[in-house]
Amino acid sequence: MSPLRLPLLESVFCAVSLGAIVLDSERRVVLWNAWMVKHSGLTHAQVIGCDFFTVCPELRGGRVDTAIQHALYNNFASLLSQTLNKSPFALYVGDQRIQQALEVTPIEVDGAPRHCLIQVSNVSIAVGREKLLREQTIVLRSQTFSDGLTGIANRRHFDVAMEKEHRRAKRGGTPLSLLMIDIDHFKAYNDHYGHQKGDQCLIQVAAALAGLLKRPCDLMARYGGEEFAVILPETDGEQAHLMGEALRVRALELAIKHERNTDPSQLVTVSIGIATQQPEAPVEVEALIGSADRALYQAKRNGRNLVANFRPS
User: Has residue 82 got a pLDDT over 80?
Assistant: First the structure.
């Protein structure tokens, strides 16, 4: 070996932007590069020649210990990903502990017992990016399934939930009720008070009505314009009517002035149509929605500010 080769290799190890530790067959530290010194705060003098687990006692008995044993005694390399071993070494940038990925590799030395190399990579930036991507995905999913104005579920969310609950009701033999809700004379409200007030009205009504739904399985969605839909799994027609009445009264309690409403109260009111799928007579989703729509139109024909249940002929 060239007399320059060993110092050159050591210089390379000290120059790379990752941690490099070499252990001999007795697990003594024979190399602790400059990157490790910088981020561990331990100098060469403090670690060279010392038992590795005296330098890093917190790693004894863990996956790093096992990986070192595999490398030294079984000639087997190991890769310890950040997912299971976020920060095995006490390494820092400022006061932030570095997120790490480790590779433990056996090293064959001519005429000498086997050594092992531990490479420590800083994956904090990659982890940060992954976290940001996850957060952005959550936000995007929320935007995809939420109505931009009212914040409740949108039409797409309704369609997905309706299909799911419809299948679940048929499979489990349980009733499924659907409520279609429309704000009475909303066009007249918009024309009289302006679109900004109209948007505020939609926001208030949506929040108030959605607040009455207590079960996680219940869903209120903006179906379109001033129309909303409520999915009530495992709810029969009578129970759905009680919920419909509660929603109708809650809208009145908001006391939103509506001078163009023909209702004597001259407040914002809602009309509600209800359709219920019975366990013994399942129908298609489109038929259930159509039945709830017909009930809603019946409520409007009968004077609005009413709840009507669909009655099949």
Answer: no
Q: Which of 58, 103, 163, 226 is catalytic?
A: 226
State yes or no: is 245 an active-site residue. Answer: no
pLDDT at 11: 66
C-alpha 298: how far from chain center: 41
The pTM (predicted TM-score) of the whole model is: 0.58
Residue 105 CB partners (closer than 8 Å, separation 6+) = 71, 77, 116, 117, 119
* Gap between the terminal Cα atoms of the chain: 98
- Tell me which residue range forms the domain holding 294: 147-309
Residue with tokens 């009578």: 238
Q: Hey, how many other C-beta atoms are within 10 angstroms of the C-beta on 239? A: 14
- What tokens were used for 266? 């001259």
- Domain-embedded: residue 93: yes
- Identity of residue 86: K
- Co-location of 207 and 84 in the same domain: no
Q: What is the mean pLDDT of the chain?
A: 89
The 3-class secondary structure across 268-297, one letter per residue, is CCEEEEEEEEECCECCCHHHHHHHHHHHHH
* Calpha distance 268→201 (Å, rounded): 9
Rg over alpha carbons for the chain, rounded to the nearest Å, is 34
Which residue has 């060279």 as its token pair?
Answer: 48
CATH code for the domain of 298: 3.30.70.270
